[in-house]
């Protein structure tokens, strides 16, 4: 029987609910607000639901905070950014979450922090981003590389921003979050599994409605299609991960 597990993490909620600032180059300052988020889990007999939590964003001349990521600008002009970036990685699995007896015998997998380089291109043809980062807390000792393209479309007070992207995760990352070693296999009865690296595409859309010069509301959704190296794990039963979020923001 499946159940819900509440994730009371500010960073996880911000990752799902806080959209990347639209036209960030036009105005520096803070975004404060309240948002809610929900994310489905790929793990067997686990669903995860987010909570309603405060949100914070900042765009400045030298540094920024965008949801679960913050960084320093090594280079920045009207079109290009090269940044040193630190991010929270909300991926995790706690054995107590699952209602499956075998899954309860597995080790916990913990969230971590990522550090790396980020490139961002703001052009009339859309927003292109690419990030390469590494687990700096040593849980997986893995690497993540991801790229995305989005194109804001403004219709009066409404801005729609569809996006597509792809994420590469190293074999070390996948082994920590989805692999099963010999000890876990003996304890759980699940087959040993050691995945390789994986490429997983995703697509999403954000809608932002300006209520006044400072106030806006937003909603977004993102669907990730997990690579077979991940989906073939005995820990995994869903080939997709869906996240949705909504909230209210005040910019000053």
Overall description:
- With 252 residues, the protein is mostly beta strands.
- The protein is 12% helix and 52% strand.
- It has five helices and 14 strands.
- The protein has helices at residues 10-17, 101-104, 171-178, 182-188, 228-231, and strands spanning 4-7, 29-39, 47-59, 63-66, 69-76, 80-89, 112-123, 126-135, 143-150, 153-155, 158-169, 198-210, 215-225, 240-251.
- A twelve-stranded antiparallel beta barrel has the order 2-3-4-5-6-7-8-9-11-12-13-14.
- The chain starts with a strand and ends with a strand.
- Residues 1-26 have low confidence and may be disordered.
- Rg over alpha carbons: 19 Å
Q: How would you describe the shape?
A: globular
Number of helices: 5
Count the strands? 14
How far apart are the first and last residues' alpha carbons, in Å?
A: 47 Å
* Uncertain runs: 1-26
Q: Could you give the order of strands across the largest sheet? A: 2-3-4-5-6-7-8-9-11-12-13-14
* H/E element order: EHEEEEEHEEEEEHHEEHE
Q: Helical content, roughly?
A: 10-25%
Mean pLDDT: 87
Residue fraction in strands: over 45%
Class derived from helix and strand content? mainly beta
Main sheet properties: 12 strands, antiparallel, barrel
């Amino acid at each position: 029987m499946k159940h819900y597990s509440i994730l009371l993490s500010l960073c996880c909620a911000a990752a799902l609910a806080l959209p990347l600032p639209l036209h960030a180059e036009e105005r520096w300052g803070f975004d404060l607000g309240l948002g809610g988020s929900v994310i489905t889990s790929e793990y067997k007999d686990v669903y995860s639901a987010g909570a309603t939590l405060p949100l914070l964003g900042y765009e400045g001349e030298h540094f920024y905070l965008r949801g679960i990521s913050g960084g320093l600008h090594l280079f920045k002009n009207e079109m290009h950014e090269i940044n040193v970036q630190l991010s929270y990685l909300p991926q995790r699995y706690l054995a107590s979450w699952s209602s499956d007896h075998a899954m309860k015998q597995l080790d916990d997998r913990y969230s971590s922090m990522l550090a790396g380089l980020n490139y961002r291109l703001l052009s009339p043809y859309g927003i292109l981003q690419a990030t390469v980062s590494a687990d700096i807390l040593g849980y997986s000792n893995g690497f993540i590389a991801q790229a995305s393209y989005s194109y804001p479309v403004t219709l009066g007070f409404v801005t729609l921003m569809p996006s597509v992207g792809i994420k590469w995760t190293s074999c070390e990352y996948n082994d920590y979050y989805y692999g099963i070693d010999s000890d876990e296999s003996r304890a759980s009865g699940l087959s040993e599994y050691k995945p390789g690296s994986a490429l997983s595409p995703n697509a999403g859309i954000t809608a932002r409605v300006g209520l006044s010069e400072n106030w806006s509301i937003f909603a977004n959704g993102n669907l990730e299609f997990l690579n077979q190296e991940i989906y073939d794990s005995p820990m995994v039963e869903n080939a997709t991960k869906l996240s949705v979020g909504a909230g209210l923001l005040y910019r000053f």
